[in-house]
């Protein structure tokens, strides 16, 4: 993706659709529109997936909690949402096999009644998935459960129920959507914000004034239809287009902690904590060589920037500890993050926990702005399809979505055979590095390996005890539109999410590599380094972990 060339196109061409917002729903809209042959523009004020879409629990799922609520409250909307999520779960795993895969989860049961209750519930979960089921759920004895999750405290449970959902890398999946949209002809640019709209005499939007947040330069972007895909901040853009629009968005905050794999120990399955003091379920899942625990659910301002707080970290660890033989401690935490769920309200007095995670496509009659609101990661593709269907109606074109079978960049041809052949072709590269690159870039891993062969210094680790290579920095700059250290270390390379102190150690080297690739001046390189260091230190301080100076550990 060439941002300079894309900016030139955005400034000079007329588009069928312009999508504002580069998270899951916006990137999904861009891919759906471009693959139907519509002339498509996508702009994002920060970086692709820089907010909600990179701060999920990394699960591709129908939602076992929503299923329970559907039956307890006799709510057909919740049930329909679970069925929709389970259908889409299989699609996501199919179109990006390098980024998404099945995950076994264990639900501990304290007595036989709980075991029966969860077994029935998860059999219903299987039933709703139908032919798109992954593998059947099973009620396990204590001995069988310990084989799957050896970290269990034997006194904490009587049996367990095993079921399957999907797991993925959310930020890189989001990037894959953007890259594939660009491959299909879309013009995409991050760090570009929509400042205001230009309308015709009837009030219909004709153009958006766009500001390049890196240079402060502005230009007019013209399109026949504009799509608002700004997540929790959708109301702001809706009201920019039409000040008479009432607020529709609510938000809930979800926080997560990350610990090294050895804190829990190697397991075959993830852990689902079936009930918390505030009525949630929690997950403790192996992810990228670490353990990720989440998530909380608290009311939040849709415009706030969320951070992991110390009380949230303690809450998450406390609820997982009730099932572990060796309790986790707060000083084992190496990283963490928090995000906002975009919730669409019908009743402004309803609790955020009671709002259905469904979506709605709204067309403002005055301005013509199309807004996609609500939803969740697993159903992003359906959200995009519904949105572009509406746009096609407004444009008077009849083209069907094809994204249910369209492989994302890096996914076509990916699998064990690809990894084995790549390993055979690069005998000098450690097999674990080949696997890491393959599981991050899919078939595009060959391009990263090519950089390592051209310049052997790029075959060195970015930081000790982590799998990330220096070549990945150059690749992120050249092929993935990484323009800041935040882009690089939080979303292209997930180091700033899993290990804060390692990210601080890597910052000088990363700044030099990225700065050289992008032609930064020494002054700007130092500015980037200072800014990123300050951001990570803020995450550490907000989480109350400033005293945590433990050494980074080798991921299992």
Written description of the protein model:
- With 556 residues, the protein is α+β, with helices and mostly antiparallel strands.
- Helix content is 40%, strand content 21%.
- The chain contains 19 helices and 18 strands.
- It has helices at residues 3-12, 24-35, 64-72, 76-95, 112-129, 142-148, 170-183, 234-241, 261-264, 310-321, 380-395, 416-425, 431-441, 445-454, 470-479, 485-492, 495-498, 500-518, 522-542; strands at 14-20, 40-43, 59-60, 100-109, 138-141, 159-168, 187-189, 192-199, 205-212, 218-228, 249-260, 270-273, 282-287, 290-294, 298-300, 335-344, 359-363, 370-374.
- The strands form two sheets. Strands 3, 4, 5, 6, 11, 12, 13, 14, 15 and 16 form a ten-stranded mixed beta sheet that branches. Strands 1, 2, 7, 8, 9, 10, 17 and 18 form an eight-stranded mixed beta sheet that branches.
């Amino acid at each position: 993706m060439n941002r300079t060339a894309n900016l030139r196109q955005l400034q000079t061409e007329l588009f069928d659709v312009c999508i504002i917002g580069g998270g899951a729903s916006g990137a999904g809209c861009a891919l759906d529109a471009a693959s139907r042959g519509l002339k498509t523009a996508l702009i994002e004020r920060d970086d692709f997936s820089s907010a909600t879409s990179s701060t999920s629990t990394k699960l591709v799922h129908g939602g076992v909690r929503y299923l329970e609520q559907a039956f307890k409250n006799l709510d057909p909307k919740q049930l329909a949402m679970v069925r929709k999520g389970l259908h889409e779960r299989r699609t996501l795993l199919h179109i990006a096999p390098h980024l998404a895969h099945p995950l076994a989860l264990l639900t501990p049961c304290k007595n036989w009644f709980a075991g029966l209750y969860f077994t029935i519930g998860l059999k219903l979960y299987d039933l709703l998935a139908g032919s798109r089921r992954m593998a059947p759920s099973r009620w396990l004895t204590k001995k069988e459960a310990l084989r799957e999750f050896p970290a269990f405290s034997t006194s904490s449970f009587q049996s367990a129920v095993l079921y399957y959902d999907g797991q993925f890398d959310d930020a890189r999946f989001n990037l894959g959507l953007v890259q594939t949209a660009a491959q299909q002809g879309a013009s995409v640019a991050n760090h570009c914000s929509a400042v205001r709209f230009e309308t015709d005499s009837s009030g219909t939007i004709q153009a958006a004034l766009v500001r390049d947040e890196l240079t402060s330069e502005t230009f007019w972007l013209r399109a026949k239809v504009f799509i608002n895909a700004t997540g929790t901040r959708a109301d702001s853009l809706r009201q920019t287009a039409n000040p008479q629009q009432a607020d529709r968005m609510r938000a809930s905050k979800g926080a997560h902690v990350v610990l090294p794999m050895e804190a829990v120990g190697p397991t075959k399955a993830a852990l689902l904590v079936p009930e918390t003091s505030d009525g949630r379920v929690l997950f403790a899942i192996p992810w990228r060589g670490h353990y990720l625990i989440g998530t909380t659910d608290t009311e939040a301002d849709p415009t706030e920037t969320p951070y992991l707080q110390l009380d949230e970290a303690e809450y998450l660890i406390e609820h997982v500890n009730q099932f572990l033989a060796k309790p986790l401690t707060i000083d084992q935490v190496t990283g963490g993050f928090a995000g906002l769920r975009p919730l669409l309200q019908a009743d402004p007095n309803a609790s955020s926990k009671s709002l259905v995670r469904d979506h709605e496509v709204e067309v403002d009659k005055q301005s013509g702005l199309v807004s996609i609101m609500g939803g969740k990661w697993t159903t992003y593709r359906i959200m995009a399809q519904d949105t572009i269907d509406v746009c096609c109606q407004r444009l008077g074109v009849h083209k069907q979505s094809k994204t249910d079978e369209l492989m994302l960049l890096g996914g076509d041809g990916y699998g064990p055979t690809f990894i084995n052949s790549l390993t055979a072709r690069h005998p000098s590269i450690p097999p674990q590095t080949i696997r890491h690159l393959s599981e991050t870039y899919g078939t595009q891993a060959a391009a990263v390996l090519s950089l390592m062969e051209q310049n052997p210094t790029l075959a060195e680790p970015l930081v000790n005890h982590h799998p990330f290579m220096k070549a990945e920095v150059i690749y992120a700059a050249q092929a993935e539109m990484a323009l800041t250290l935040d882009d690089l270390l939080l979303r292209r390379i997930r180091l700033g999410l899993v290990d804060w102190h390692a990210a601080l150690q890597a910052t000088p080297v990363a700044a030099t590599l990225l700065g050289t690739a992008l032609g930064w001046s020494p002054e700007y390189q130092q500015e980037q380094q200072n800014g990123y260091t300050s951001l990570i230190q803020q995450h550490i301080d907000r989480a109350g972990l400033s005293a945590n100076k433990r050494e980074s550990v080798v991921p299992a």
